[in-house]
Amino acid sequence: MFGIGKKKKKATAKPTPQTEDASSVKEAASPEESGNNATHPVSPSDHHKARVDHGVGPFDESDGGLTELLDPNEEGAGIADFGAYAFVAPVDAQLQIETSADGSLAVHILVGSGHITMDAYSAPKSGGQWRMVASELADGLRAQGAKVSIQDGPWGREVVGAAPNSVIRFIGADGPRWMLRTVVVSNAADAEQSAEIARTVFAHTVVRRGMNAMPARTPIPLVLPTEILEQVQAEQLRQQEAAKVAAEQARRRMSADRGEALQQFDGPES
């Protein structure tokens, strides 16, 4: 686990997506909810621009630089950059990096009992991918026996699955040829607080899709930032050195034991 967020007093003052501004963004960016979509279709880029104009992400890399978008007042926010996306890590959060057999990465943000994971995917220019994915997620949760509800969030629908002692929430938004999805898992008592933290991270994220052609729903690969890569390499080196020391100690013990055994069987010649 690696701590990224810097403990700055101002870091906690960043607005969450549930402020009045975020609500107005949702109203401006979600015409399909108002029933006017049939006569005034709005493209995903227009949705995205409406959010960005109100200063609420998730942003696209074309919207500006990381500091400009995520730390405009230069407050020293802890920006964690994983290539496919960069975000402002919550104060006192820990980042857990998971590596799969194929070398792909997953980033988990641990805050209190909350476990937050973000994934970025390619999406068609026509948009609407999150609505389809949200429906599929809801069906999957119901099939697993969870109590499912579709709630109205700052970016549209949020899918919530409740079990006796835990809650899982999916938050998503479409951007220019990409979709960002966040999964929040926490115990039931901390579910709302964890959701607020996840929304704040979501609103302070920049997505880098790149220009390569990709089928819809293809995960945009993550890369380790230099700071964490150095920590990982240092930890790997420490483990290698510790393994060498342990092996040498084991070799010496075996040599000593063998010497004692030989002394027991090799007596003086008569």
Task: Please tag this protein with its features.
single chain; 270 residues; alpha+beta; Jelly Rolls; eight-stranded antiparallel beta sheet; four-stranded mixed beta sheet; disordered N terminus
Could you walk me through the main structural features you see in this protein, from its secondary elements to its overall organization?
With 270 residues, the protein is of the alpha+beta class. It has 2 domains: 222 residues, Jelly Rolls, CATH 2.60.120; 46 residues. The chain is 34% helix and 26% strand. The chain is built from 6 helices and 12 strands. The strands form 2 sheets. It has an 8-stranded antiparallel sheet with strand order 1-5-6-7-11-10-9-8, with helices on both faces. Helix 1 runs antiparallel to helix 2. It starts with a strand and ends in a 5-residue tail after the last helix.
Topology, please?
Layout: E1 2-3, H1 20-29, H2 44-53, E2 59-60, H3 66-70, E3 79-81, E4 85-88, E5 94-99, E6 105-111, E7 114-122, H4 129-143, E8 147-153, E9 156-162, E10 166-175, E11 178-187, H5 191-203, E12 205-207, H6 226-265
